[in-house]
Structure formats: C-alpha cells, structure tokens
Amino acid sequence: MSPLPPRWSQLPVPLNRREIMSLKFAARAEEMEFRRDYDDGAVPSRVAMLVIGLLMILATPLYDVALLGAPPDFVAYTRLLQFGVQVPTLLLGMLVVLSPALQAIKVPAMLVGMLIFGGSLSAEYVAGVRHGFSVPHDVATLAISAMCLLGRLRLYVLAPWAFLLMLGITVAQVGAHQASPGALYDAIAIWMQFSVALTAAYLLETSARENWRQNRLLETEAAQDALTRLPNRRQFDEVLIGRVREAAREHRSIALMMIDVDHFKAYNDHYGHPAGDECLRRIAQWLRESMRRPQDFCARIGGEEFVAVWFDADAETAPLLAERLRAGIRELAIEHGQAQGPGVVTASGGFVFKRPPWPEEAAAAVASEMVDAADRALYAAKGRGRDRLLVSDGLDPARTVPPAARR
After folding, report:
1. Residue 224, strand partner residues
2. Residue 397: what pLDDT?
C-alpha cells in the first residue's frame, strides 16, 4: 500500500462499463497497484491448486491397476509422464510461487507449467486410446479449469494460452479417435467446460476488482481529512515515522513545519463556519499544490493546524521552502477584517530540521521529538506577534527570503 492516498482515490464505484469489459482500471496507477495486491493475495489459492494436483497424481497408483485393471504398458507410460513430467512440474511451480527470489518469473512459469501439465494429461488420454483403456476425456480440461479458478492469473493473460492448449487437446483427442462422432461429442463437452471455467474466472476477477477498489476507497477515506482531503493526523503520524526511518537508512535530512492559521476563531465567528471551511480548503489546496516532490507531503492535523514535511532538503534551502509556503497563505488574499495587521488571513509556523545519524528503530521517537520542537517554535512565533515562521533554534528565516521569492 502506498503511504499517502493516491491521486486516483476518488474514481467512481462501482466499476464503469469500460473497466468491466476490459478488466482494467482506467487509471494506470490504480491498475498497477491492483495487480501487485492481486498477485500477492494469490499465493494461498495457487498453493492449494498445486497441492491438489500432487495428491491426485500420487493417488493414481492406488486404483488404476488394482481397481481399473489398466494394461501394464499403459501404466508404465503413465508413470513416466506422472513422475517424470507432472510431479516435477508441480514441485517447480510450488518453488516459484513460494520463493521471493523467483517472483519476477512466476507468471510465465505458471503459463509454461500449465502447457506442460495439460499436454502430458492429453498424452495420457491418447495413450489410453491406443492401449484400449478409457481415460476420461476431460482430465486435461480440468487442469485448465483449475488454473482459471485457482491460479489467480489475470484473465486476459491466461486466456490466450489456455485457448491454445485447448486447441491442442482437441486435435489430439479427436485425432486419436479418427474424428468419430463420439470424439466430436467429447470435444464439444470439453469446450463447454472450458467456457464455463473462463466465465467463472471473468466474474471472479471482476468481483475482485470491485472489492479491491471499495476497500482502497475506504482506506483512503480513513486516512484523509474529510474537509480538505489532505492526509489526517493518523496518516501524518504513520507517514512521518516512515519518512524519518527512510532518512536514517539513506542518510538523508528531513524538515518539518507546523502551521497555524492566525485568528481563525475570530474569522469563524465573524464570517460563519461555511466561510471558515472554505478558507481552510483554499489553504489546503495551496499547501497541496506547493508540495511537488513525491516524498514531500502536507496534512491537516487539527482544526486550523496543518503540517508540511520535506525529505532530503538541505539545511539552507529547507527553511526558505517553509517560509515561502507559510507566506503564500497571506498571498491568497483571503479577507479577514477581524485580524490585526494586513486585513487578510495569515499563518504562523514553527520549523525544525533534522539530519542523521539516528538508528532506524528510533524513528518513532525522533518523529515525536520533531513534532514537539516544531510545535514549541510555532507557539513562540505566535507569541512574537504571529504571521511569521520561527525555526526551533529561535531564528526567523523570513529575514533571508526576498518578498518576490515568497510568491
């Protein structure tokens, strides 16, 4: 999961018609994240499919000779296919599914495994015909159906290869019976079974996409402030700890500014709460648009309190970025007739800059210390008359920022 709500978080629910038909989300970022999550969640069903396949093969010697009286030559050929081809294929499939080092090849490996496994089952059927022993005509198709329902491959990746394997199975089985009416009837039956499996796979993936999107939207709603659509306090705490941990690991700096809208209670009392909400939304939009780098972010952490975080900004630049961000709130020119001074909404800020080293396991403590230091600097700024930014060491970076650079 991404640490901040992605830009596509407000896509419609349920899926639209185009997404249903194509089995693909319209937004590329959403599609890529779904594919990762869908594939990560497929491991239990894939393991179950492989274990079932192994158990069915290992059970065959218990009944094909004693109960069914299979011819010795056919049994020898079948054992060669079962323990020389099918069991190794399933075991290699298990290795690929469970090994993190082989995740990059798991999809092509599963497709190749399906072709080998299904082809060997079809060869058993043909051998049974030649030895006068009846092997169920739909065994190979059952393997394809299992891949459709338990393999958890995306349908449009699986379908062409499954279709190709079905053609090969059909040609082999019909050819073994020299295109007799019974063989043609069996071919129709396995294609009907295949069609049912594909339809079920399509519906399963559609349902998985629908549920995944709804869950993601619920997670996003839980992580966002309802008024401003910025990350909320809980999300801020989680992401800040992650950024601090990453800074320790990569020996990068991290900077944080706490922002408080000046005289906001007076603004609300005079202009009304709807106007106050709109004021906060405009400030949030300015903050969001100003945080342009992927690892920088802002959040709303209280009524009129916001926070901004910069990752890997140098010690000289970071305070200037913070001052431009804070001073930009004044440049929004939101009228505030009840405030002392400029007659527009302004904000005060407290800034802290931190550079490693610190241990990764101390990330939560470091993050808490940064928030406390920025909060103390914020209250010092308010005590000095508001509409200013103070660094945690008491310096005022506004003196080093030309007015034109604050825009």
Report:
1. 231
2. 60
Q: Which tokens is 161 given?
A: 């290869």
The domain ranges of the chain are 17-221, 233-406
Reply yes or no on whether the pLDDT at 305 is more than 50.
yes
**What average pLDDT score do residues 140-167 get?**
94
Q: What is the pLDDT of residue 1?
A: 37
Architecture of domain 233-406: 2-Layer Sandwich (3.30)
- Is the Cα torsion angle 375, 376, 381, 382 positive or negative in sign? positive
Q: Which residue in 352, 345, 340 sits closest to 390, CA to CA?
A: 352
pTM higher than 0.90: no
Tokens 């800074």 label which residue? 247
Residue 314 has pLDDT above 80, yes or no: yes
Label residue 219 exposed, middle or buried (CB < 10 Å: 0-12, 13-18, 19+). middle
**Could you list the active site residues?**
304
Model confidence at 8: pLDDT above 70: no
Which pLDDT tens digit goes with each residue over 362-393? 999 999 999 999 999 999 999 999 999 999 87
- Contact 91/100 with Cβ under 8 angstroms? no
Distance separating alpha carbons of residues 369 and 18, to the nearest angstrom: 49
